[in-house]
Amino acid sequence: MAPSLTRRLIALGSADPERAERFLAARELEGIDPGAVLEGLALAADPDAALVALVRLIERRPEVRRLVEDGPVRSEPLFRLLGASEALGEFLIRHPEHLDVLERPLSAEPSGADPGELRAAMLASVGADPRSGRPVAGTTGPEAYAALRIAYRRHLCELALRDLGAASPTDFMPTAAAELSDLAGAALEAGLAVARAEAEASFGREDVAAVALAVIGMGKCGARELNYISDVDVIYVIEADGAGGDGGPDGARAARIGTALATGMVKAVWSSGREPALWQVDANLRPEGRDGPLVRTLDSHLAYYARWAESWEFQALLKARRIAGDAGLGARYEAAVAPLVWSSAERDGFVESVQAMRRRVTENIPPSEADRQIKLGAGGLRDVEFTVQLLQLVHGRTDESLRVRDTTSAIAALAAGGYIGRSAATEFDSSYRYLRLLEHRLQLAKLRRTHLMPVSEDALRALARSTQGVLDLGRASPEQLLETWHRTKRSVRELHERIFYRPLLNTVAHMSAEEARLTPEAAQARLAALGYRDPQGAMRHIEALTAGVSRRAALQRQLLPVLLGWIAEGVDPDGGLLAFRRVSEALGTTHWYLGLLRDSAAAAERLSHVLADSRLIADLLEVSPESVKWLGDDSDLEPLPLEAQWQEIQSKISRHAEPAAAMRLVRLIRRREILRVALADRAGILDTEAVGHALSDADQAAVLGALRVAEGAAEAADGGLLTRVLVVAMGRQGGREIGYGSDADVMYVHRPVPGADPDAAQRQALAIVGSVSALLTQPLKPPVLAERMLALDADLRPEGKNGPLVRSLDSFAEYYRRWALVWEAQALLRARPLAGDDALAADFMELADSVRYPEQLSAADVREIRRIKARVEAERLPRGADPSRHVKLGRGGLSDVEWLVQLLQLQHARRHPQLRTTGTMEALTAASDLGLIPPGEAELLAEAWRLASRVRSANVAWSGRASDLLPTSRRDLEAVARWCGYPPGQATALEQHYLNVTRRARQVFERRFYAPEH
Fold first, then answer.
1. How far apart are CA 37 and CA 29, in angstroms?
2. Beta bridge partners of 199
3. SS3 call for 669
4. DSSP letters along 495-533, please?
5. Which one, of 995, 929, 726, 759, lies nearest residue 847 by Cα?
6. What contacts 24+ positions apart, CB below 8 Å, involve 527-535?
7. Where do the domains of the chain lie, and which CATH numbers do they carry?
8. How many angstroms separate the Cα of 636 from the Cα of each of 90, 675, 690?
């Protein structure tokens, strides 16, 4: 590399000058004066990102070259935008037809766009008439959604260029924030027009036209101070023309139409599609929050506010403003709630409640983010906003000049009214503008919500350059940025503490974004800060994922800064990143994969978390990567019913005569369903019982398939079937209570067909069951280390390991009549047909019922059960294991609950059919309902059993290995706690809860299990 070029690139702010030179030599830039490119890069906040985007842009549209060739005056908009916003650069690459936005020269003193023109342009994008009071779109569905979003992002490009070209970005900040709010309102107006057109198909044009919907903006959007990317908080108000009369729909129908309009509008801006979603629309500030109806009439709103609203809700209403929908209804809403807002400070304890809320916001910041928070931390934006809003609410009761929505105007009004000293107001205002500018520039880079200051030097440099005015770009540095930011935070915090908490108020009131390209230095610093144990190893994975200039690599560069943070939230970030790389490589250039992660934040975040928190899921996803698609839709995670699995298995078997090939497909189906269950379990879609049922169904379907294949092979070998075979589930499989690490306890029964030789039938039955076991345990290729092969354990059969593996039904009947011990009757409590002949199953279950539900359980039998239980505890608990932490055999664990329930079944099931169930929880509920055990004790036992079951499954999900111990390692315990639904950092809470619950469950067990006979 030429030393002079290297020095110049470094002076421009390039983090990787060697790579930058390679891009400067790209064929797309051939013939362009390198000096012109370097002049342009000098204007870019992130010259590396700008250069990469420039090459990609010229590749799509060669005419972009002339902007560079014409010199810095013409190319300035191009380089400023590409260097400040990777996301908008990606938009222009996707839609080069909008490159004309770069043709307009920048202005050092820009102005904002007219709100009416924005509204008209957005409505026009979906074919709606902007002159209509309730416009209806001319297009619907994905076509309309894409058109709306493309139009929005074009306007966003225009605004960003004016913002980036301003001589004083802090002076332009309020104008930019207001325009962002107006643009969001215009987008919702267009989305509402689309929703009206779509709703007409369901409700009819006249009824839809008769329903007025006003969209009330809250928070930053309501105050016209929105960020480049923020949730848009809203409340919906409806009104029907001629409600209840002949001229319009009644109240219930109007509510349904209003709900359809609101949800359709949100879908237009937020649903997945070929053009990425814009931002989330959040209606949780509505009355009753998520539990309340999505839409209400104005009278319903007012009734709620008069009776039920809390103080914080009135503080939120201070920002309320109609942003879309019916103007008259919106104006009436604003007028109606205003008196409530400005009298709210008279409520008892109002000031204290606002102050307490601000403290809770600060206390809930994760410690790792506390020093990087621009918004929520000490000296951040929330300190300014809470201070200003409280002063407005306190003094605005009597001073109408304070009744403004946006923060900068409110500060000016407070200073003019003498409520804040002029010097404090000036400092507050400049600090707020500066913090908002930081927030704007961080979010503009990737159009992703973030409020955290980056940590790497390169990212800090890019942020410093992007926050400077056009005349000061060369003087930006990371050190100056951090110094200014820390000084600003100190100033805000001092002012906040002095003003926000001053006692006088009570008397008066009576009451990181990362840079686009991850260089090794920047990435390793970021990874170490995030908690990766091997940053260099993680870098190798990142380099493998992002190498090259392909679309796939570009998307990975866009996604990874987000995904790395989510993966780092897991227990094993290094393992999670490795798994992500393997899944990505397995899916290759599959068109939907990266699109799903880009367009569905929920799917991307869910994938990141499961890969870092579960070895089982990570390994299964590596061999079944197409299953990632399920993460985008919860309905895809619903377990497949047994009948559907069996139907699919029969179809597969019918097309493969060779047993090994047929059984491979059966095992693949089982593997797939185990993965589905694990993903649903981790997502919180399934509870403990549902997980056990779903896993049991997957195993049963596999056994059904294996038996069908084995019988087919036996029939071919022997010239026909000589006997009918039944596989009987026992133990936890019989109760449909298995976990990820459970074997299948079974017994084998057969009945010779009429006329068959009994000895030959016995030999065939042995061959069939042997084949079933072998077929189920053949490993799949590629193997999965964490996958459990389905091992069938027949040790619970009569005479145990010394008895024949398979018996005829008559042999079972004779054995149980003459020799059955009480423990065998107890074992049969879990027996249920798993696979095989239906008639044989019915006859065997009739036999089992006669044994497991005795007329009376003798005192000797009770003593024997107690003796066996004590022996199991003494002999089977692993040497050195802590009984208080063994989830199966330990204190208050699975064994204690199950043995107590089974004792009650043996004693009472003959007289009470409700107890005749193989499920532990069903039997425990029945025992409680019958008064055999107090409800409180039954609830405690159920809690202990469920928690122990969940810990047992969590051990397998986390490590891929079965373990019956509550971990002692903090890392393992943290992983188990998260699987059990505890928030990060709550491993000790799980441990204490488990030990407490099982200790009390053991007390109940001992009191009931060893109770003297009366």
1. 9
2. none
3. helix
4. HHHHHHT-THHHHHHT--PPPSS--HHHHHHHHHHHT-S
5. 726
6. 527/564, 527/568, 529/455, 530/564, 530/565, 530/568, 530/573, 531/568, 531/573, 532/568, 532/573, 532/574, 532/577, 533/573, 533/574, 534/574
7. 3-92 (no CATH), 106-343 (3.30.460.10), 348-511 (1.20.120.330), 614-851 (3.30.460.10), 856-1009 (1.20.120.330)
8. 30, 12, 16
Nearest partner of 544 among 592, 602, 601, 583, judged by Cα:
583
Helix, strand, coil shares of the chain, percent, nearest 5, are: 65, 5, 30
pTM for this model (two decimals): 0.55
Residue 713 vs residues 26, 700, 725, 769, 772: alpha-carbon distances, Å: 64, 20, 14, 12, 11
- Distances 376 to 180, 431, 452, 801 between C-alpha atoms, Å: 21, 14, 9, 65
Helix H or strand E encompassing 327: helix 327-343
Average pLDDT, the chain: 87
Q: Is-contact 485 500, C-beta < 8 A? A: no
Q: Which helix (H) or strand (E) holds 863?
A: helix 859-876
pLDDT at 888 exceeding the cut of 60: yes
Q: Using one digit for the tens of pLDDT, what is the confidence trace for 670-690? A: 999 999 999 999 999 999 999
Instruction: Provide the token pair at 501.
Output: 């908490």
Neighbour tally for 483: CB within 10 Å: 11
Band (pLDDT 50/70/90 cuts) for residue 68 is confident
DSSP 834-858: EEE-HHHHHHHHHHHHHHHS-S---
Return the closest-CA partner of residue 614 out of 929, 1003, 315, 980.
Answer: 980
**Alpha-carbon gap, residue 922 to 907, rounded angstroms:** 16
CA separation, residue 755 to residues 367, 721, 759, 760, 761 (Å):
77, 11, 12, 11, 10
What are the start-end ranges of the H helices in 930-980?
935-959, 970-979
Token representation of residue 118: 């924005």
Q: Do residues 979 and 949 lie in contact, with contact meaning Cβ atoms separated by under 8 Å?
A: no
The answer to whether 880 and 861 have CB atoms below 8 angstroms apart is no
- Alpha helices, H only, 396-468: 407-416, 422-446, 457-466
- Are 85 and 447 in contact by the 8 Å Cβ rule? The answer is yes
* Residue 2 confidence (pLDDT): 55
Count of CB atoms situated within 10 Å of the CB of 880: 5
Rounded Cα distance, 26 and 840, in Å: 75
The one-letter amino acid code at 766 reads: L
Place of tokens 């698609």: 629
Is residue 660 within 8 A of residue 689, CB to CB? The reply is no
Bridge partners (DSSP) of residue 215 are 236, 324
Report the alpha-carbon distance of residue 617 to residue 683 in Å, rounded: 12
Which pairs with CB-CB distance under 8 Å and at least 24 residues apart come from 106-110?
106/76, 106/77, 106/80, 106/161, 106/162, 106/164, 106/165, 106/470, 107/162, 107/165, 107/166, 108/165, 108/166, 108/167, 108/470, 108/471, 109/166, 109/167, 110/162, 110/163, 110/165, 110/166, 110/172, 110/175
pLDDT of the residue at 513:
28
| Residue 480 amino acid letter | Q
| Helix residue ranges, H only, 569-687 | 573-587, 591-599, 601-613, 615-623, 642-654, 659-682
**What does the alpha-carbon distance between residue 1006 and residue 896 come to, in Å, rounded to a whole number?**
9
Residue position matching structure tokens 């109007």: 254
CB of 496 closer than 8 Å to CB of 362: no
- Please, are residues 189 and 324 in contact by the beta-carbon 8 Å criterion? yes
Give the 3-state secondary structure of residue 360. helix
- Positive/negative CA dihedral, 807, 812, 816, 818: negative
For the stretch 453-512, pLDDT in tens is: 888 888 888 888 888 765 454 556 888 888 888 898 888 877 765 554 343 333 233 333
What's the one-letter identity of residue 312? W
Name, in order, each residue with C-beta under 8 angstroms of 143's C-beta and a sequence gap of 6 or more. none
Q: Give the whole-angstrom CA distance, residue 64 versus residue 101.
A: 12
